[in-house]
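Dear colleague,

Thank you for sharing your sequence with our group. We've completed the structure prediction you requested, and as agreed, I am returning the results in plain text so they can be pasted directly into your records. Please verify that the sequence below matches your submission; if there's any discrepancy, let me know and we will rerun it promptly.
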Amino acid sequence: MVKSVTAECGCEVIERRCTDTVCCDQAKQYGITAVPTIVVDGVVVFQGRPTEAQAKAILKVA
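Please find the predicted C-alpha coordinates below.
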Protein backbone atom coordinates (compact mmCIF):
# COMPACT_ATOMS: atom_id res chain seq x y z
CA MET A 1 0.00 0.00 0.00
CA VAL A 2 2.58 2.57 1.06
CA LYS A 3 4.89 1.71 -1.82
CA SER A 4 2.12 2.25 -4.36
CA VAL A 5 1.14 5.57 -2.77
CA THR A 6 4.72 6.83 -2.58
CA ALA A 7 5.33 5.87 -6.21
CA GLU A 8 3.05 8.79 -7.09
CA CYS A 9 5.42 11.31 -5.49
CA GLY A 10 8.75 9.57 -6.01
CA CYS A 11 9.37 9.29 -2.25
CA GLU A 12 11.97 6.83 -1.01
CA VAL A 13 10.59 3.82 0.87
CA ILE A 14 12.75 1.50 2.93
CA GLU A 15 11.06 -1.68 4.09
CA ARG A 16 12.60 -3.53 7.00
CA ARG A 17 11.76 -7.01 8.17
CA CYS A 18 13.19 -7.50 11.63
CA THR A 19 14.89 -10.86 11.81
CA ASP A 20 17.86 -9.91 13.97
CA THR A 21 18.41 -8.20 17.31
CA VAL A 22 19.82 -5.02 15.74
CA CYS A 23 16.60 -4.35 13.84
CA CYS A 24 14.44 -5.31 16.82
CA ASP A 25 16.45 -3.00 19.07
CA GLN A 26 15.91 -0.16 16.60
CA ALA A 27 12.16 -0.85 16.61
CA LYS A 28 12.19 -0.66 20.42
CA GLN A 29 14.02 2.69 20.27
CA TYR A 30 11.24 4.06 18.07
CA GLY A 31 8.63 2.68 20.45
CA ILE A 32 7.06 0.54 17.74
CA THR A 33 4.30 -1.62 19.18
CA ALA A 34 2.49 -2.70 16.00
CA VAL A 35 3.34 -3.58 12.43
CA PRO A 36 3.37 -2.27 9.86
CA THR A 37 4.64 1.08 11.13
CA ILE A 38 5.39 4.17 9.06
CA VAL A 39 8.39 6.23 10.19
CA VAL A 40 9.08 9.54 8.42
CA ASP A 41 12.39 11.31 9.06
CA GLY A 42 12.91 9.34 12.27
CA VAL A 43 9.42 9.97 13.67
CA VAL A 44 6.73 7.29 14.00
CA VAL A 45 3.71 8.72 12.19
CA PHE A 46 1.43 5.68 11.92
CA GLN A 47 1.18 2.18 13.38
CA GLY A 48 -1.03 -0.47 11.81
CA ARG A 49 -2.24 -0.96 8.26
CA PRO A 50 -3.34 2.37 6.75
CA THR A 51 -6.04 2.75 4.15
CA GLU A 52 -4.99 4.35 0.88
CA ALA A 53 -6.52 7.67 2.00
CA GLN A 54 -4.67 7.51 5.33
CA ALA A 55 -1.37 6.70 3.62
CA LYS A 56 -1.82 9.64 1.24
CA ALA A 57 -2.63 11.98 4.12
CA ILE A 58 0.30 10.75 6.22
CA LEU A 59 2.72 11.07 3.33
CA LYS A 60 1.02 14.22 2.00
CA VAL A 61 0.51 12.78 -1.47
CA ALA A 62 -2.23 14.51 -3.46
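Summary note from our side: The two ends are 15 Å apart (CA to CA).

Kind regards,
the structure core
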